[in-house]
Specification:
Blueprint (H helix, E strand, L loop, with lengths): L1 H4 L43 E3 L5 E3 L10 E8 L6 H12 L5 E8 L6 H11 L3 E5 L6 H11 L4 E4 L11 H8 L5 E5 L7 H18 L11 E4 H6 L10 H7 L4 E5 L14 H20 L3 H30 L9 H29 L13
Helix pairs in contact: 6-9, 10-11
């Protein structure tokens, strides 16, 4: 009875997406498509990853801004086949952290291994690399002088190719230059060299500081930074690359130094020998003369000649006094001091004459180009 009183409910027909609904007066319904989730998007700061020099992505915070437009890195080398490629990689890594443009100049000082081939291969893939190759071994000073004539940057960085100088010190050198100095020299305070080289280097630097009165601890450090006017003014030849700070100070430039990292030598063997130790002191005399007395030779030769002649004159006066008052009428010509006194007088007069000839030559060959002008209006 209860089932008969309940109203009949129409049967529910489920829409099959494959077959349309066949009920009359109803249009077929479209199948409901499942809702697609929006793809997850990562939001990041686009300015955080900008391409740095060389096309590689690097954080902007790692790039240091400098006022210099272009930096030239000069690397002289001799038989450093195994060191050149890792040195290049380290230099590029360091140069990407500065805002200035750059170039790298390799100077082959007559290498007999495959060092030049390595540089040529690097230059094929990097148009910022330039190189010069000597037919013979002319020395580091000649290599630097050639590079200084061809650099195009307003700042020049020099370093050795043996991987003992750290290219990551380049930004630190530039920071010191921006303080107003014309040249910055590296100081290898903690050295990884043989004990003989350490002792000789300290003694050499100590003597150089005394004679030149320049407060620098490491004159011969290969890692240095120069403003372009410095390298355009100084003339490096022979073995004078050890005394570039002295030459710069003599020309009126300001010189400072910073402590730099020094690494043990990885490949090859050191070019240091005992002969270089003695050559350094001979070159020190050359530098002292050329920096202090090249324009006033009479100050050196005249002073030495005056002292020598004075010593000879005093000796002969003493002998003359003895001849008259102590030992009257004694044969003075038989005493060696008599001839020593005459010799000293003659040598003193010759030194004095050399100083006069030098002054005449300086007067006749005076050139205004030798004076460095800092500013003009």
């Amino acid at each position: 009875m209860d089932n008969q009183n309940k109203p009949e409910t129409p049967p529910v027909t489920r829409n099959n997406p494959e077959t349309p609904n066949t009920q009359p007066n109803q249009s077929p319904q479209k199948p409901q498509q499942p809702q697609q989730k929006k793809p997850y998007r990562r939001y990041y700061n686009k300015n955080k990853f900008r391409p740095a020099h060389g096309g590689q992505n690097q954080p902007v915070s790692a790039i240091q801004n400098f006022s210099f437009k272009k930096v030239s890195v000069v690397v002289p080398f001799l038989n450093e086949e195994e060191s050149l490629r890792p040195l290049y990689n380290e230099m590029k890594k360091s140069l990407r952290t500065i805002s200035s443009d750059h170039e790298i100049i390799f100077i082959d000082d007559g290498s007999t291994d495959k060092s030049l081939n390595v540089v040529k291969e690097l230059a094929r893939f990097d148009n910022k690399i330039h190189y010069f190759s000597f037919r013979a071994n002319y020395g580091k000073s000649a290599a630097l002088q050639i590079a200084f004539k061809h650099v195009t940057g307003d700042v020049i960085i020099t370093m050795d190719a043996d991987l003992q100088d750290d290219p990551n010190e380049i930004p630190n050198l530039l920071k010191k230059l921006e303080e107003g100095y014309d040249m910055v020299s590296g100081w290898k305070k903690k050295r990884f060299d043989p004990i003989i080289k350490k002792i000789s280097s300290k003694f050499f630097n100590y003597i150089t500081r005394i004679f030149t009165r320049i407060k620098i601890h490491d004159f011969n450090c290969g890692l240095k930074a120069y403003r372009k006017q410095v390298v355009e003014t100084i003339n490096v030849y022979g073995e004078l690359h050890r005394y570039i700070p002295v030459l710069a100070v003599w020309k009126g430039f300001t010189v400072s130094e910073i402590i730099v990292k020094h690494h043990p030598r990885r490949y090859g063997k050191t070019k240091f020998g005992i002969a270089r130790f003695f050559k350094g002191f001979v070159d020190l005399i050359t530098v002292i003369f050329t920096t202090r007395y090249i324009k006033r030779p009479m100050h050196l030769f005249g002073f030495v000649g005056f002292l020598t002649a004075l010593a000879g004159l005093v000796i002969n006066l003493i002998l003359t006094y003895e001849w008259f008052f102590v030992i009257p009428h004694a044969p003075i010509v038989q005493r060696p001091l008599f001839f020593l006194g005459i010799l000293l007088i003659i040598v003193g007069v010759q030194f004095f004459a050399i100083g006069l000839l030098g002054e005449i030559m300086v007067h006749n060959f005076q050139d205004d180009k030798e004076y460095v002008i800092k500013e003009k209006k």
